[in-house]
Specification:
Blueprint (H helix, E strand, L loop, with lengths): L3 H14 L5 E6 L12 H8 L3 E2 L3 E3 L2 E7 L6 E6 L4 E7 L8 E7 L11 E7 L5 E6 L23 H10 L4 H5 L10 H11 L12 H20 L41 E5 L2 E5 L12
Antiparallel strand pairs: 1-7, 2-4, 3-4, 4-5, 5-9, 6-8, 7-8, 10-11
């Protein structure tokens, strides 16, 4: 599933190509793509037509498009990218993608830096993702994600509150990093990367974290995410792409994730992989020594 850097790359593309455009019509080509919209495909399409898309927004891994105009104040389209969902901006004349699920056409002909008008397409090979329309909270979030914490790149993220939450929890550090109600946007890839940079084992208990250790970890989380943003995020198997269909290149710079058996870039010890919560954790057994209980 895309993490903060990948979703932010998509958000920036939508800001350039979609913001402030008026929806002419919506075509839902697969009902599963709007299954989170209880009123169904016809209602979803009807409620978007004639309204303007606001500035695309993001919190952690969650992306939404607020609606502007009469009668739609406080509503937003929430995008669930799932494992393979893609939001693509394509010329209207471009052939349909094999797994095209939703098409949004615009009433205007605005196409920045291009001669041909464009449309927004939701493409999803595995149909785990989708679009849905929701009321928004006073903060402007779709109500179904109102419980999601701020992400570490948010200027209003509270480092001290995060540290105190870690100290109160009887948990381990990777579980805490993936808890979207505590800190959002971090998934399996960037958790492993930040923990490697911090020399922390994924099973390290959070209750023993000192303030300097917490701040150091947050610094590495931010560094690895900013580094990924700079190269367009991480793409595997061409499932994650930006709105123009281009892949990210951070997978070439990964220090931990996916490097089982390869030498640690810091000490040369072969990296290891261990099953963890239906996922995998990648770590260096020398640089990231497990706590006694874990070992």
């Amino acid at each position: 599933m895309p993490e903060l850097p990948e979703v932010e790359v998509v958000r920036r593309g939508l800001e350039r190509w979609v913001a402030h455009r008026t929806v002419a019509d919506v075509e839902v080509l697969h009902p599963r793509a709007v299954r989170r919209h209880p009123a169904g495909a016809e209602d979803f399409a009807h409620r978007l037509e004639g309204h303007r898309i606001g500035m695309p927004s993001r919190r952690g891994k969650y992306l939404w498009l607020p609606l502007e105009g009469t009668g739609v104040t406080g509503q937003a389209i929430l995008a669930h990218l799932g494992m393979s969902g893609q939001l693509l901006v394509q010329p209207r004349s471009a052939p349909d993608e094999k797994h095209l699920r939703i098409r949004i056409r615009f009433a205007d002909a605005m196409a920045p830096a291009a001669a041909e008008a464009t449309e927004l397409r939701f493409v999803d090979q595995r149909t785990f993702g989708g679009l849905s329309l929701h009321e928004t909270t006073p903060e402007g979030l779709p109500d179904v994600i109102g419980h999601i914490a701020r992400d570490p790149l948010d200027p209003r993220f509270d480092d001290e509150a995060f540290h105190q939450a870690l100290r109160r929890r009887r948990s381990t550090i990777k579980r805490a990093l993936l808890d979207q109600s505590l800190i959002s946007g971090v998934g399996n890839i960037y958790a492993d990367e930040a923990l490697w940079r911090s020399r922390l084992h994924y099973e390290r208990p959070t209750s023993a974290f000192t303030r300097p250790r917490t701040l150091q970890l947050l610094g590495h989380v931010r560094d690895v995410m900013n580094a990924a943003l700079a190269v367009g995020g991480t793409s595997f198997d061409s499932l994650y792409v930006n709105v123009n269909g281009e892949s990210g290149y951070f997978d070439r710079s990964l220090d931990a994730y996916g490097r089982e058996g390869e030498p640690c870039r810091r000490c040369g010890t072969p990296m290891r992989r261990r099953p963890w919560m239906n996922r995998s954790s990648y770590f260096c057994p020398r640089c990231q020594r497990p706590p006694r209980a874990a070992s």
